[in-house]
Design a protein that fits this description.
The chain has about 300 residues and is an alpha/beta fold. The protein folds into two domains: about 5-75 and about 220-305, Nucleotidyltransferase, domain 5 (2-Layer Sandwich), CATH 3.30.420.40; about 85-210, no CATH class. It is about 35% helix and about 25% strand. The protein contains nine helices and 15 strands. The strands form four sheets. A six-stranded mixed β-sheet has the order 3-2-1-4-11-12. The protein has a four-stranded parallel β-sheet with strand order 6-5-9-10, with helices on both faces. α1 (about 40-55) crosses α7 and α4 (about 140-155) crosses α5.
Length: about 300
């Protein structure tokens, strides 16, 4: 048996695996039921069935690429981690205020979604940078320690660090992160200058908060997959699909799971384009109906339509 390249997608109802023979190009597709209580179980069931049908073993696997809605579903179903946040003094309500943009502008009864970080877990620290990244007010390290200890007392599972203008100068955020790691060594840490080093503090904060909210879930999930793959003898590279259509290593997925929130829809629209291209179809719409969510993608004039913002 020649090396197999394997793609596995987990949805709300079904888990699908495609095994591609590296020598002949032959493709075998396997579909099993998703196991919501332990998605890794469905992943391995699809993989093991596919290998059995191909008369192969884990040692025949050359690479595994995985697209999943695990992070997306956790957000939609409200099954995210308990998250705390450290922000520049005066910006405690950054997630509450947002950008004052409402989906239904004239609906006075519109209820905004609850932020991923409750206000009582959003703590301020004294520091300030200007719009060019110059220090206006030094970071108060004692305040950071006190805030970190309060979050530890509150039992948070993950901590967001998002300070004003840190995309230009991450020094204060890195100092805060160092203290948080010392005070809360067992929590997950999401630092905005690492996750989303871009201007506009709300978008940076919300992206970093999403990252923190799903870090424990995705990390445990990916760890379980890697452990079971190794037990099967499959020590080949393991990649996770990103929302931009590319892939990242499993270690990157655990550190920046926000990048994989829309990995399922991205994989779907890329596949739709690959199927349509040989027939000359330049305007294509992909539709992916899952057990929890439904996703739509658009290809116009042969080009994937891209967006720099998403809302889940």
């Amino acid at each position: 048996m020649s090396a197999l390249r394997i793609g596995i997608d987990i949805g709300g109802t079904f888990t699908d695996a495609a095994l591609v023979d590296g020598e002949t190009g032959a493709i075998r597709v396997v579909k099993v039921l998703t196991t919501p209580e332990d998605p890794a179980q469905g992943f391995m069931a699809a993989l093991e069935r596919g290998l059995a049908e191909c008369q192969a073993t884990g040692r025949d696997v050359a690479a595994v690429v995985h697209a999943t809605t695990v992070a997306t579903n956790a957000i939609i179903e409200g099954k995210t981690a308990r998250v705390g946040m450290l922000v520049t003094r005066g910006f405690r309500d950054i997630l509450e205020i947002g950008r004052q943009i409402r989906s239904r502008l004239y609906d006075v009864h519109l209820q905004k979604p609850a932020p991923l970080v409750p206000r009582r877990f959003s703590l301020e620290v004294t520091e300030r940078l200007d719009h060019e990244g110059r220090v206006l007010q030094p970071l108060d390290l004692d305040e950071v320690r006190q805030a970190a200890r309060r979050l530890r007392h509150e039992g948070v599972e993950a901590v967001v660090v998002c300070l004003l203008h840190s995309y230009l100068n991450p020094a204060h955020e890195r100092a805060v992160a160092e203290i948080v790691r010392a005070e809360l060594p067992d929590v997950f840490l999401s630092v905005s200058s690492d996750v989303c080093p871009e201007y506009r503090e709300y978008l940076r904060a919300s992206t970093t908060a999403v990252n923190a909210a799903v870090m424990p879930i995705v990390s445990r999930y990916v760890d379980a997959l890697e452990s079971r793959l190794h037990a099967l003898g499959a020590v080949a590279p393991f990649y996770v699909m990103q929302s931009n259509g590319g892939v990242m290593t499993s270690s990157s997925a655990k550190a920046r799971p926000v990048y994989m929130v829309e990995s399922g829809p991205a994989a779907g629209v890329i596949a739709a384009g690959a199927i349509a291209a040989p027939y000359g179809y330049k305007n294509v719409m992909s539709f992916d109906m899952g057990g929890t969510t439904a996703k739509v993608g658009l290809i116009q004039d042969g080009q994937l339509r891209l967006s720099t913002e998403i809302e889940v």
